[in-house]
Amino acid sequence: MRLELPAYGKINFTLEVYGRRADGFHEISTVLQGISLADRVEVELGGDGTRLAVSGSGVPSGPGNLAWRAVEALRERTGFRGGVQVHLVKNIPVASGLGGGSSDAAAVLVGLNALAGVGLTPGGLLEIAAGLGSDVPFAVMAATALAGGRGEELVWLPPPPPMWLVLAMPALQIPAATAYRLWDETGKVTCGASARVARGLRNGRKEGVLANLRNSLEGPVMQAYPQVGELKSRMEGLGLVALMSGSGPCVYGVAPGREEARRAAEALRPWYPWVDMACTLGGQAAVPLPAPAASGRKPCQ
Questions:
Q1: Structure pTM?
Q2: Which fold has domain 164-279?
Q3: Known catalytic residue: 232?
């Protein structure tokens, strides 16, 4: 039995960092948006143990890969012992801030749950996902959400009106741990943008979203890596509303329409090793969300 699934990337409309928690993670508030750029994940039952093959990227194909760990986490939770073969076809750049590794792991969880018939509920899938990484629970749904805690506390939001995006990266990778360390050293607490974007989405106001794009990590990362700031400035010079996604270094620019996005992407390609186009995803979550757990008062409330 074999199943093929898309593993959609994401951008952050906002990423507000409040500080380091006792468990070593950072308390955040972020509005996450699924995008059409996707890896392809093939899950097949058969053989012995867990086998993982990766095409199109230099990411590890063993236990160091989050997709491998997703299989093992599902085994531990359910007792499933059958052979599993996973093939990842990578289109999302590694360590880019677009959530490729998290989306691969989420697709493996969803696909293996269906193939193996282990009967995990949506809540059960999200619990396993939270143990794998902060962005993995969102990647299970890959739509639009407000996330709190370290990123695992999700509240469903209506998708925005369709947006065409230009995505680009300078020739560098920035691990998330590095970006958050830079924030620890030089960053400032910012408040309110996530709530304003959530309100704009609920009201169906695209301008309410675009006027409040914020990323607490952007300033510290650009100070350490000026080429990220240069990329953002180039996008803004082309008429795009631009922001670094997640921990970077990918910067996305929102264009007025598809043709404007195409022209901007063509203008950027001579400057950067990776440039692509995507659009925001709409519709319902791939996996229905349980009611969000009650959480403590956030610093910005």
A1: 0.92
A2: Alpha-Beta Plaits (3.30.70)
A3: no
